[in-house]
Amino acid sequence: MTDKIKLDIISDVVCPWCIVGYKRLEQAISEMGIQDKVEIEWQPFELNSNMPKEGEDILDHVKRKYGSSPEQWRDSQSNMLKLGEGVGFEFNFFEGKRIVNTRDAHVLLAYAKEMGKQTELKMRLFAAYFTEGKNVSDREILKEEVKRVGLNLDEAMARLENNEARERVLSQESLWKNAGISSVPTIVFNRSSSLVGSQSVDVYKQVLADLLK
């Protein structure tokens, strides 16, 4: 038995709100000094599960999916830059950036969980995509990130060719969607309650404090 708070964080590595929300959660946990009282597991969610391998230009994507104009996109990215600064994360948005498929990334994150390095790899993938402008659907890029966090490269890459491993990711995605989760980030506490969206540090502190009582 464990008295740790189980945090399932449903997210995608190309979701800017997901990293902002996590950094705020991380700050709340740190300020409360309860790092040893929480257990985090990242759960897969694909914002664009049908995205082809070549991806899609970001301006075309936001117009098609959200009806946003280039000016609206620039305004939203300006706001996101400020939010990133507030949590110590660097966003680098640029026209020509591409939205990509993230299924391979989620397969590798499941492997990293087994090796005790899931959060470390997740942070690297966020930084690779948002800070460094890398294509996190490119397997050569994924190889670099796997090596950077000290995972076994051969084992990790073999997972990408393993149909059962890929099916497990799809099964997990379906599980959370069937539970009613349709947007990210969503944090589920002890598999019983949840918060949707990027909340403030104080909100996370309040929820965690209540759970520790």
UniProtKB/TrEMBL annotation:
Gene3D superfamilies: Glutaredoxin (3.40.30.10). The keyword Nucleotidyltransferase does not apply. Residues 139-173 form a coiled coil. The keyword Coiled coil applies. Residues 7-208 form the DSBA-like thioredoxin domain. Keywords: Coiled coil. This is Thioredoxin. The lineage of its organism: Bacteria, Pseudomonadati, Bacteroidota, Bacteroidia, Marinilabiliales.
